[in-house]
Design a protein that fits this description.
With 263 residues, this protein is α/β, with parallel strands linked by helices. It is built from ten helices and ten strands. The longest helix is centred in the first third of the chain and has 15 residues, at 2-16. The protein binds S-adenosylmethionine.
Length: 263
């Protein structure tokens, strides 16, 4: 039933989505042509996809705790799963994590915050896109975080600080480590109230050039409501919906507009 609902939302998205030829905003047009449509094969892609391949063939079991939308009991659910299954269920697709790589490469944010590290694939993409950036990524499950840290060490990535803890308690402390947030990627606990709360907690640190990215904005009715709430915020000017992700911009010089783009 859930899958059918997502499929219906996807069909609605396809119906509403525009191509670049219907976009009159130079900012969004540039973003589409220079970032979304950039089909170059960057060296980083190979590095991350090699790790993904290893994880996808790893049949070892891992005890994981789920703090997020997958948890049916609170505060969290513990289960043992094969590593390859965890990657399949939680990881971004290569297409979408490579888009994040290009977004970070394009905007060169100095400060990056990620909620939801899992095994670190999206973190690595963002780190390789901008080695000068300071990245803090938060993961609730210590066993998963341990694997992510090993992946960061293998690639000798020096710009990532991994914080282990529930977003609900660690986020306020982590935010104190930033003067401003140039880029935020929220990819965990995909539920309406928590997502709105994380957005509102990060919002005071946003600046005119900040980019906030939300994953799975159409995953559930609650996530669609959270996305609707975020779009309406007066500090938000432009938003871009590519179905599996939503991008939020705060540029005051741009008139308020919500785009649905084919990707
Ligand atoms: C979808 S996965 C992240 C995938 C990762 N960004 C990638 O693309 O490779 C979401 C992660 O967020 C973590 N998570 C969910 N809710 C959380 C919470 N409330 N506090 C801490 N971690 C949480 C889960 O343990 C899971 O590893």
């Amino acid at each position: 039933m859930k899958r059918i609902k997502i499929l219906i939302r996807y069909i609605k998205y396809l119906h509403a989505a525009k191509t670049k030829f219907k976009i009159h905003s130079p900012f969004v047009y540039d973003l589409i042509t220079k970032v979304f449509e950039d089909s170059r094969e960057y060296e980083a892609y190979d590095k991350v996809e090699t790790i993904r391949k290893e994880l996808l063939s790893n049949v070892n079991p891992l005890e994981i705790c789920d703090f997020g939308a997958g948890a049916k009991s609170h505060p969290y659910l513990t289960s043992i799963k094969k590593i390859k299954h965890i990657v399949k269920q939680t990881g971004q697709s290569p297409k979408h994590s490579q888009l994040l790589f290009r977004i970070v490469k394009y905007f060169k944010p100095k400060s990056i915050l990620e909620l939801g590290t899992s095994f670190g694939l999206s973190t690595i993409y963002q780190s390789l896109a901008s080695p000068e950036s300071k990245i803090i990524t938060i993961e609730g499950c210590a066993n998963t975080a341990d694997k992510a840290q090993k992946n960061f060490n293998t690639l000798k990535l020096k710009n990532i600080k991994l914080v282990i803890g529930n977003f609900n308690t660690t986020l306020p402390k982590v935010l104190k480590k930033f003067d401003t947030l140039d880029y935020v990627f929220i990819d965990g606990n995909h539920r309406k109230e928590p997502i709105i709360k994380y957005f509102e907690q990060c919002l005071p640190l946003s600046n005119n050039n900040s980019v906030f990215v939300f994953d799975d904005i159409h995953w559930s009715k609650g996530m669609e409501e959270a996305w609707g709430y975020i779009k309406k915020n007066p500090k938000v000017s432009v938003t871009i919906d590519i179905f599996f992700m939503g991008f939020v911009f705060f540029k005051k010089e741009l008139s308020k507009q919500d785009f649905i783009i084919k990707f």
